[in-house]
Each structure stands twice: as C-alpha cells, then as structure tokens.
C-alpha cells in the first residue's frame, strides 16, 4: 500500500462560512486511505453553529481520522497556520498540507502533493495555477486579479532570486522536520505569513518546488454560484455597499459569461459580490 508508512496532516483553514469547508470534506479523494493521514479543520474564532455543521459532515462521512478545532479568539490566517504547524510538530507528523478553506482549491489535487512529497527530497511544495502557460486565464480568472498576481510575483522573484509562477497560493505542503528548523512563530498572523515562510525556507536553503494544480478559480465560481442562492440577505447588503466598487469586475464577467445560456445575469452579479467582498 503506497505511502502507508507516512504520517501526513491535512489542515483545512476555515475562512468565512462552513459551506466551502463542507464541500471540501465531501470531495476529498477516497484514495487518501492509502496514506496514514489525519484531517484537521481549524475554525478561526468561536462559532458554535459553524462548528456543529462541520462536525455533522465529519460524522456523516465517517471521517474517523478528522479533528475539528476552533479557537476562543481569532488568530488570523497566519496565526492558524502557526497552530497547524505546532500541531504537526507536537504529534510527530512527517508532512503537513495546508489548504485554504475558501473553496478555491479543489481537494482532488491532494494526491499530487502526497506523491510529490513521497517521491522527492523537496522540503516544500507550493501549488500553482500558473505553472502551465495560460492556465490562470483558462479558468476564467479576472484580468485584474491575474495581472496583479503576476506583477507582484515578478517583483518578489526579482527580490528573492527565485523563479516562481505564483507566490500567493493557499495550497501548500511542508516537511515537518524543516518547519522545526524554521522560525515561523515570528511571522505575521495575517496573509503575509505565506510570503514570510517561503523567504525563511529560501534563506535556510530548503528546496521549494511548485506543483501544478488545476481548476482553482473555476472551482470557486461553481461554489459561489450555488452558495449565493441561499445567502440573499448577505447579497443585498454587499450589493448596496459595494456595487460601485465591483463595476469593473461586473463588466468583465458579463463579457465572458453573457453568451452562456446556462447562466443568469443575477447569478453573475452574485458571484462578483461574494467572490470579491466576503474575504
């Protein structure tokens, strides 16, 4: 049985609502059973209803190796990664895979990380939607996000003497032994954590490699399209507060999708508002 001797922690960071986390749990590949693993869902801040819904999903799916934890105070994006790394070190895992729970990263890609870590000496893998030419636009990423991501990545490559196609992925894998030698506790509790941990690995000399992952923004699109239909109150509030800010994205989405008879204009507006203004 491939990989059964490895101890792997898969950590899902809950972002703003339980639906994408529940969807991720439902779509975790069955082949994961070939690996000795544990699933850790971290809910940032005490949210009882959220916790109960995720726990019901864990029980329904019979995920006996899953833990759902919530903190009494909000730790932030980076703070939750620190907690996951502490957990992995304390419980002597060999690998920790961190997965942003926003729904943008299909869990079907987990196998790529598992086999990558199994068959190389690389100390960290970073999932990238841009590793294959044109992939970001292929999955209908907005031009503004695409351009911003590529510009920032170019500058960071220039400063750090790296050649990454993307620095800002929320789907990564780290060897726990390498984390033990990395001063990650001093990193930011916010989104800067992702950059800081890569800088630390680079300075220490730990090899990092990118791994092509597919369908990130397209997956988010499908999720938001379903999610928006049951969040009318949130939608109304967002529309009234942010419709003027969303205008450039709305124009882009209309241009891309209006010819698609399967989609309604209202669903397109919902995608824009929820995708850009609930993070």
Describe the structure.
The chain has 279 residues and is an alpha/beta fold. The protein is built from twelve helices and seven strands. The chain has a seven-stranded mixed β-sheet, with helices on both faces. Helix 2 (48-60) links the parallel strand 2 (36-43) and strand 3. Helix 1 (18-26) packs parallel to helix 2 (48-60), helix 9 (216-227) packs across helix 12 (265-277) and helix 11 (247-257) packs across helix 12 (265-277). The longest helix has 18 residues, at 143-160. It is globular and about 45 Å long. It starts with 6 loop residues before the first strand and ends with a helix. Residues 1-5, 218-223, 227-231, 241-246, 248-266 and 272-279 have low confidence and may be disordered.
Q: Give helix % range.
A: 40-55%
Strand content: 5-15%
Q: Can you count the beta strands?
A: 7
Order of helices and strands: EHEHEHEHEHHEHHEHHHH
> What's the oligomerization state?
single chain
Question: What's the N-to-C terminus distance?
Answer: 40 Å
Class derived from helix and strand content: alpha/beta
- Please give the order of strands in the largest beta sheet: 3-2-1-4-6-5-7
Main sheet summary: 7 strands, mixed
What are the SSEs and their pairings?
Elements: E1 7-13, H1 18-26, E2 36-43, H2 48-60, E3 66-70, H3 76-90, E4 95-100, H4 110-118, E5 124-128, H5 135-138, H6 143-160, E6 171-175, H7 176-180, H8 193-204, E7 208-212, H9 216-227, H10 232-242, H11 247-257, H12 265-277
């Amino acid at each position: 049985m491939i990989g059964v001797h490895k101890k792997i922690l898969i950590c899902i960071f809950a972002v703003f609502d339980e639906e994408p986390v529940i969807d991720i749990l439902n779509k975790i590949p069955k082949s994961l059973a070939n690996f000795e693993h544990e699933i850790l869902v971290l809910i940032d801040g005490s949210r009882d209803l959220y916790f109960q819904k995720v726990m019901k999903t864990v029980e329904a799916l019979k995920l006996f190796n899953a833990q759902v934890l919530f903190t009494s105070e909000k730790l932030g994006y980076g703070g939750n990664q620190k907690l996951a790394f502490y957990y992995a070190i304390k419980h002597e895992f060999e690998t920790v895979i961190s997965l942003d729970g926003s729904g943008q990263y299909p869990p079907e890609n987990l196998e790529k990380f598992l086999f990558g870590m199994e068959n190389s000496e690389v100390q960290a893998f970073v999932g990238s939607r841009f590793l294959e030419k044109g992939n970001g636009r292929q999955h209908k990423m907005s031009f503004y996000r695409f351009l911003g991501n590529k510009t920032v990545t170019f500058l960071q490559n220039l400063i750090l003497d790296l050649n990454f196609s993307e620095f800002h992925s929320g789907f990564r894998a780290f060897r726990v032994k390498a984390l033990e030698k990395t001063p990650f506790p001093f990193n930011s509790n916010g989104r800067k954590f992702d950059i800081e941990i890569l800088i630390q690995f680079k300075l220490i000399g730990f090899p990092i490699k990118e791994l092509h992952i597919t369908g990130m923004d397209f997956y988010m699109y499908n999720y938001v399209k379903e999610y928006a239909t049951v969040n009318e109150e949130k939608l109304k509030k967002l529309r009234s507060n942010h419709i003027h800010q969303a205008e450039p994205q709305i124009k882009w989405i209309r241009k891309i999708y209006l010819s698609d008879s399967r989609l309604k204009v209202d669903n397109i507006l919902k995608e824009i508002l929820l995708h850009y203004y609930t993070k």
